[in-house]
Amino acid sequence: MNWKKIRFYLKLHWLKGLLFIFLTALAISLVFFIIIGLRAWNESESYLRQSQLAMIPLQLYLQIIMALIFGFVYTYLMYWLYFKRGASSFSQTKKKSVAGEDIGVTWNDVIGMDEAKEEALEVVKLITDRVSLQRIGGKILKGILMLGPPGCGKTYLAKAIATETKLPFISMSGSEFVEMFVGVGAGRVRSLFKRAQQLAELEGGCIIFIDEVDAIGAQRSMDRGFGGTTEHNTTLNQLLVEMDGLKDKDYNIILIGATNAPETYLDPALLRPGRFDRKIIVDKPSLEDREKLFAYYLKKVKYNAQDVKIDRLARITVDQTPADIANIVREAALITVRNKNSSISMQEIDEARERIALGIKRRIKLSEKEKWQIAYHEAGHAITTYLLAPTQDVFKITITPRGPTGGATWTPEREDSFIKDSNRLFSQIKISLGSYVAEKIKYNATTNGVYGDFSKAMHYAHQMVWNVGMGKSGMLGNWEIVDKISEEVRAKLDSDVQDILKSCLDEVTAILRKEEPLLDRLAKELVAKNELNYDEIEAIFKEFGKSRP
Amino acid sequence: MNLIMMKLKLSSKSLARAGLKLIPLIFILSACTSSTAPSFLKEDVAKAVKDICKKEYQLNIITNLTGRTFWIYMPLENIITKPAKPEKYIERFLVEERKNQLEQRILRVNYLIKPVEETEKQQDMSLDKSVNTKIFNVLQVVRRVLFSLDNREAQKNPLFFCVITADIANGFELKQIFHCLDLKKISYGFISQTEFQHRIVQDTGVSAQIIGDKEGRHLVYRDITLEEFLADQIQGRIRMKFQKPEVEKNVDIDREVLKVVSLTLNTYAFKDFSIVEMTNLVTGAKTILNQAAISAGPKE
Questions:
Q1: Residue A63 domain-assigned?
Q2: Are A326 and A442 in a shared domain?
């Protein structure tokens, strides 16, 4: 009976017992070694003892230094572990919030995107009138997705929303969630929303802005075994849960996402109502928008109002984004300073546009033969554009190497257009082939300079046949989305592509043979001057009885 | 049973508490019982060295403390042997021993050094290895004892010790005089082994009186003075410099001797002299230098 109790007691307290034995052994051994040490100490000659004692101050000093270093390291480690969450701090986002009022982007600063602005204004009202919305049973807004090409002011609009709503604003980039450690992305999403929740409780709401949201919001897929996809999926899943997951309380947190990627690239779960409820398309500015933008940016610099006509600037900057327009004005200001002028004139703006569109001039010495080859190449583009593309101006032709090209023909669009008909597509192909034909006519040999032109021509011809049913054989449908196409169909489609290219080539050849004197003249002028401006080009065409409305 | 367990529990707690209280006590007690007192008194030096040598190295030695000089007589037999591999050296100079004197504040250094044709020579006789070990052991004991004397009476403690290794079978003896401070310096690495060797004053003697003298009766124990020690060390250093030459053949002999004198006197910070009278017995040239000139040493 007693033995049973002892066993039971041992089972319960074996660790304590073990510890007790260990400590007792430690104490006994300590006493034992102290006695032995003392005996040895007292038996040793005094000079040995003195030597040992002489070492003590130095040893003590070194030990204090070591203790201080160790103490510092240990304290920092403990601080890092308990207050900075140790290794899990990788998954914490260090993003600081900015108060809405401090952002300083007012509604009036948002120019050139009236439609997007209207949409955003409505969103602002929904955010600020949250209480009244909840009163009638309406669901609060969770997310706004801003779509559109780069440089169109998505971030700017988000900042304006934050300023207008006077809510704290946390800005992050989608790539900031991506790290080499697994689980960090999801951790950062959690941390971001936790911080936003705290701010929402304190300030009544919070705006999270995730730029390039496609970095985490791309469609989920199966992992092929390397783990990267799983990590991406986990990050996205966490974002989905945070946006519309099962939570005990709904916070007034609005997630604004911005992306240049097409909507179809994003995961459908992210786009469903309850997550990104609203989609705002922030597109390239219209003619009126460009006018407003030029007026806004030119207001900030000194310019010659007599010379610089804002309406003209808006017309000649078709397809330019607000960022491009800001860049043109900034570049023009730099050129003005370099030219030692007191105010920006149209000449500086043209130079700035040219530099941005064509790239900076390269100091490459071309041989005479190369100059002629490039001149004919560019003249081919210019003539085909002038005669076949009435919506494009031949603004400049140059045989000075710029950017990656040996020469360039700058043909900006005259007006905004959103769709391209078959005629326009054909004319694009013909313009691209103009260079090849000109070289062939003059030299009966072509250069590798046509690489880019052929790529462009092929792209258009392929698109016409494979995507939009413009082939000669009458094959309809978007064949790109079909997984399996028979060899016969494929051959037919490819034949249609070649047919388009050949027909365009024949037409361009006929035109350029007919206009060979014009071709020679343009080439000659180019070799002589290196560059031809809009007026000079127009004058040459007029000389040959060609004019455009 | 429960009661026992409870008692056990209680007693373990109280034991742990007592243990914790005991630890500082152990440290205090150990600090109190540890001694830093000198191990030997000056009066016991002779006996202590003798006893330790006997006990730890089975060496029968005779010791005597006269004034500040500690004498050790070690009677052995057949201490000289023919080395298996004799040490070879080049003879460049003929050095004849001349006794230096430091009397009435005048240091007289007489030297007879003649350059001779270079010839290879070898050391035919040397001390037996076991004898070297015995001398080393004696030095160890002397070190232990002399270093463990009461430093508060350093002025009275031995300044020199002289180890006489006698071959009582053949009537030969080797006398080595050490400065106690030099032993301390070599022990703590302040001087090199070569420098220590240069600082030892060595002398050999052959006498029929040595044969069978186990008690050191033929010795005259006296107190060696620093002056005498320095004069002899200078002589020894000159011998070592020129006999197994540490210098080239065409060296300026007078200058090298002056270097030795200056180095020796400066090493021991000896100032109790007025002039140094250096006489080259080969050329007859006599150089007289004052204390300042000796302190400055020869100009390079």
A1: yes
A2: no
On whether any CB of chain A is under 8 Å from the CB of B16, the answer is: yes
One domain for residues A259 and A401: no
Please indicate, yes or no, whether residues A115 and A169 belong to a single structural domain of this protein: yes
Q: How many angstroms away from the CA of B234 is the closest CA of chain A?
A: 31
The Cα of A46 is separated from the nearest Cα of chain B by a number of Å equal to 5
pLDDT band at A324 (very low <50, low <70, confident <90, very high): confident
Provide, as residue numbers in chain B, all residues whose Cβ is less than 8 Å from the Cβ of A18. none
Are both A395 and A299 inside the same structural domain? no
Quick: pLDDT tens for A242-253. 877 656 567 778
- A390-407 pLDDT, tens digit per residue, is 888 888 888 888 777 778
Query: Is residue A406, in this structure, part of any structural domain at all?
Result: yes
Q: Considering A235, A257, A281, which residue would you say is the last residue of a domain?
A: A281
Same domain, yes or no, for A211 and A256?
A: yes
CB contact under 8 A, A23 and B16: yes
Indicate the residue among A265, A281, A297 that finishes a domain.
A281
* Closest C-alpha among A53, A58, A56, A59 to residue A41: A53
What is the model's pLDDT at position B96?
87
- Name the token pair of A236: 């996205």
Q: Which of B15, B35, B147 is the closest to A47 by Cβ?
A: B147
Would you say residue A9 lies in a domain?
no
pLDDT at A221 over 80: no
Range of the domain at A302: 287-358
If asked whether residues A423 and A516 sit together in one domain, one would say yes
What's the CA gap between A14 and A11, in Å, rounded?
A: 6
Distances, alpha carbon B36 to alpha carbons A35, A58, B117, B149, B156, in Å: 16, 19, 60, 12, 20
State mean pLDDT over A8-28: 88
Chain A partners within 8 Å of B34 (Cβ): 38, 41-42
Instruction: Check A378, A507, A515, A525 and give the catalytic one.
Output: A378
Out of A91-100, B130-139, B207-216, pick the least confident.
A91-100
Longest dimension (CA), chain B: 108
Position A112 scores a pLDDT of 73
CATH number where A104 lies: 3.40.50.300
- Measured from the Cβ of residue A144, the count of other Cβ atoms closer than 10 Å reads 25
ipTM confidence score? 0.71
B23/A27 CB distance under 8 A: yes
Q: What is the count of structural domains for chain A? A: 4
Own/partner pairs for A2-7, CB < 8 Å, 24+ apart?
A2/B1, A5/B1, A5/B5, A6/B1
CATH number for A326: 1.10.8.60
Q: Over the range A328-348, which residues count as b (16 or more CB within 10 Å of their CB) and which as e?
A: bbebbbebbeeeeeeebbbbb
pLDDT, one tens digit per residue, over A535-548 is 888 888 888 888 77
CB pairs under 8 A between A and B: 51
Q: Are residues A265 and A352 in the same domain?
A: no
- The token pair that represents A89 in the structure block: 């701090």
Of A31, A45, A51, which to mutate for an interface test with B (greatest number of B Cβ within 10 Å)? Answer: A45
pLDDT tens per residue across span A46-90? 888 888 888 989 999 999 999 999 999 999 998 887 776 666 655
pTM, two decimal places:
0.50
Residues 6+ apart with CB under 8 A from A154: A146, A148, A211, A258, A282
Please check whether residue B26 touches A, CB under 8 A. yes
A378 catalytic per annotation? yes
Q: Do A42 and B34 touch (CB under 8 A)?
A: yes
Flag if A46 and B144 touch (Cβ within 8 Å): no
Inform me whether the C-beta atom of residue B189 falls under 8 Å from chain A C-beta atoms.
no
Give yes or no: residues A344 and A258 share one domain. Answer: no
pLDDT at B114 over 80: yes
Q: Is the pLDDT of residue B22 over 80?
A: no
